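Second attempt. The first submission of Surfeit locus protein 4 homolog had a stray character pasted in from the spreadsheet, which I only caught after the job came back as garbage. Lesson logged: always re-copy from the clean sequence file. Corrected sequence (273 aa) follows.
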Amino acid sequence: MAGGIIPKDFISKAEDIAEEVYKKTRIFLPTTARACLISTFLEDGIRMWVQWSEQREYMDMSWGCGKFLATIFVLVNLLGQLGGCVMVLLQKKVPYACGVLFFIVVLQTFAYSILWDIQFLLRNLALIGALLLVLAESQVEARSLFAGVPSLGDNKQKNYLQLTGRCLLAFMFITLIRFEISFLQILQDILGGILMVLVTIGYKTKLSALILVLFLTTLNFYHNCWWQIPDYKPLRDFLKYDFFQTLSVIGGLLMIVLLGPGGVSMDEHKKKW
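This time the job returned cleanly.
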């Protein structure tokens, strides 16, 4: 597929480079991936703490639910997100932490009426995909009862978590597509689209995910530089939200680099040909 457009030697060389990068970073790659992935939850949890009164008043005004329910909403978001982040970073009860963070994503989707905003909805789906990859990573160590002893059979649950996570991450790139007549934008749409498809189907997965990490990191720092906006401007909060959500998706892509595509992928099926 990709070999007909780009010389195979070039792709092989790029894969070798990607493998070298992986080998040199694998010691701190898991921690980096988790830190990036939980960043949007951590930022939002801290914001709930710092802007306690503002968040409570916003929920009360938006839904007319009263001070008590508005306070409960803010408290659940604060404790759920900060607690979930700590558990993921420390790798303690990761499935429960992912469940809590998943609940927060769904809760905020309805509470902030994100369900009717297609761009925010797609980004939240991508965020759920990243959480599924964290959940898949937590199952790696549980594949065998004893260290060094191979497990019997495939971990099908982990494979399907990886597949679903890859598919949901792709929604982030749909939100980046812009129908603008400019060379750079067209190149961005085409490159991002191709890489998105490759990661989704699990073809040349580690290489594609690593390129997407570099690509998305560049776009994130270029488009979402919230630190350059004064505190009093609402644009700062919007850019900050986008920045940390994108950083979480980058964490999901780093998880793909770390774990590989899983059993349900073209890369895995190619081994059987």
